[in-house]
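sry for the spam today, last one i promise. struct tokens for design, 483 residues
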């Protein structure tokens, strides 16, 4: 199977070991015998940035953003009609996960651990690698459900890994985040960390935040465990302000630019515009974030692209593309933001998981989101006017709906997180595409496996996961997505 074949690390050179008798003669002093862990970190983090940007491989972010109708396609009206069923995770196993496993191996192997401290203390490298690895696995299991986990990344020891149940993966991830965060030491900071600059404090907050968000996913399937894990993660300290926001920074460079910029400008395709569902709702509630999320069309108006309407309702210039805040060449991709932490706490308070006032937390989350999106243009007056509107003012009887709807707005251009929230809560209420192309009638609940590889090269385990989890289609609900 692809994830267990020998992998060449992009941008790195791996040397071949000569026979022992001719070792000195055959070693090139200019070619490293082991991959540089600093470069491995950078490569893995670049993929994390792409995972959370809009247009990328495997429908990384655009697919769920289309499902929750933050975006709509403009020219080829297929993605919003769910045409693609099977999505590949092969590149994640063979890319960042292999990189991170190599970092872990080198920092634990007695023969190599001393030499790699050039790039940071062993414990600090292990902590960040474990947290990132857990984050990617969490991101994957939330999309596909059961996936190879315990038997994955074993190289030629196992070409056909079994699929782990999502429940077991979640249990392992809670443990991994907590143990990894505790592993940081006062040694040298990690080099190659282009996300958080090797800051142990920031990585600990990131790990606690991911534990907290994962715990909330259990609200319907295992609320007892979810409550306990949420409280423990909150006590450990998640993001505490907008200055803690975790964002991947793209560059004004064609080699590492925002993929949405590539689509809009470099390729001049303009495949995706902000959805009319999203724009019309923001107009309805006079949302001051609209102009920071959507760009005016050629007439200077904010007009969303009709969702899943075939044939196309018009050319891209008739509609609002994403604003420069998310579509400029160097516009960052949000990995996780403080507003989401507050919305999670508001939901947890409403569920009775933590003490606290759901209304106050909800309003604080909205304020944090307005401050995040509006920057220096934010005013308390705009915030006060916004939360006073009938459709925004908190009402306890519909608290979950309001929290989820405002989270949907705040998580604009964070497709995977927005889709997770919608699947868990059912809000906002969205109408599916009128004429789906996947044989169904509803909004997809999961991504189907890359059948060309799993069904062909890992047939026994693929058949076993279907028998256990259910039919490999967009409507088989994953473990935590229960009605």
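last one done:
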């Amino acid at each position: 199977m692809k994830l267990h074949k020998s992998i060449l690390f992009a941008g790195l050179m791996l040397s071949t070991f000569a026979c022992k008798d001719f070792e000195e003669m055959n070693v090139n002093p200019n070619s490293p015998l082991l991959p540089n862990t600093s470069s491995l970190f950078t490569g893995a983090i670049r993929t994390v940035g792409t995972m959370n940007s809009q247009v990328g491989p495997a429908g990384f972010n655009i697919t769920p953003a289309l499902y929750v109708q933050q975006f709509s396609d403009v020219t080829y009206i297929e993605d919003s009609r769910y045409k693609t069923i099977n999505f590949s995770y092969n590149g994640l196993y063979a890319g960042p996960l292999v990189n991170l496993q190599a970092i872990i191996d080198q920092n634990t192997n007695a023969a190599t651990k001393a030499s790699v401290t050039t790039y940071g203390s062993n414990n600090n490298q292990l902590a960040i690698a474990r947290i990132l690895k857990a984050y990617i696995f969490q991101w994957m299991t939330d999309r596909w459900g059961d996936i190879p986990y315990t038997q994955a990344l074993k190289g030629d020891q196992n070409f056909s890994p079994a699929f782990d149940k999502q429940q077991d993966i979640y249990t392992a991830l809670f443990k991994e985040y907590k143990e990894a965060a505790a592993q940081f030491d006062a040694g040298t900071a990690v080099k190659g960390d282009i996300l958080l600059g090797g800051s142990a404090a920031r990585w600990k907050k990131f790990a606690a935040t991911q534990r907290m968000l994962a715990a909330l996913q259990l609200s319907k399937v295992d609320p007892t465990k979810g409550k306990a894990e949420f409280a423990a993660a909150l006590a450990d300290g998640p993001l505490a302000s907008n200055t803690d926001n975790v964002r991947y920074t793209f560059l004004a460079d064609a080699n590492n630019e925002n993929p949405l910029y590539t689509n809009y400008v470099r390729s001049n395709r303009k495949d995706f515009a902000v959805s009319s569902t999203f724009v019309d709702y923001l107009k309805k509630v006079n949302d001051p974030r609209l102009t920071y999320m959507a760009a005016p069309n050629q007439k200077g108006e904010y007009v969303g692209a009709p969702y899943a309407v075939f044939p196309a309702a018009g050319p891209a210039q008739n509609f609002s593309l994403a604003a420069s805040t998310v579509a400029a060449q160097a516009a960052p991709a949000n990995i996780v933001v403080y507003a989401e932490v507050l919305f999670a706490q508001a939901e947890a308070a409403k569920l009775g998981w933590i003490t606290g006032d759901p209304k106050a937390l909800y309003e604080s989350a909205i304020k944090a989101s307005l401050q995040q999106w509006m920057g220096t243009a934010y005013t308390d007056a705009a915030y006060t006017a916004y939360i006073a509107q009938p459709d925004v003012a908190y009402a306890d009887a519909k608290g979950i709906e309001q929290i989820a709807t405002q989270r949907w707005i705040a998580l604009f251009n964070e497709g995977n997180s927005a889709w997770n929230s919608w699947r868990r809560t059912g809000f906002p209420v969205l109408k599916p595409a009128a004429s789906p192309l996947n044989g169904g009638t509803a909004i997809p609940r999961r991504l189907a496996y890359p059948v060309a590889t799993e069904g062909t090269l890992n047939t026994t385990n693929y058949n076993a996961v279907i028998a256990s989890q259910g039919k490999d289609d967009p409507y088989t609900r994953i473990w935590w997505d229960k009605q």
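The first strand starts at residue 71 and ends at 73. ok im logging off now
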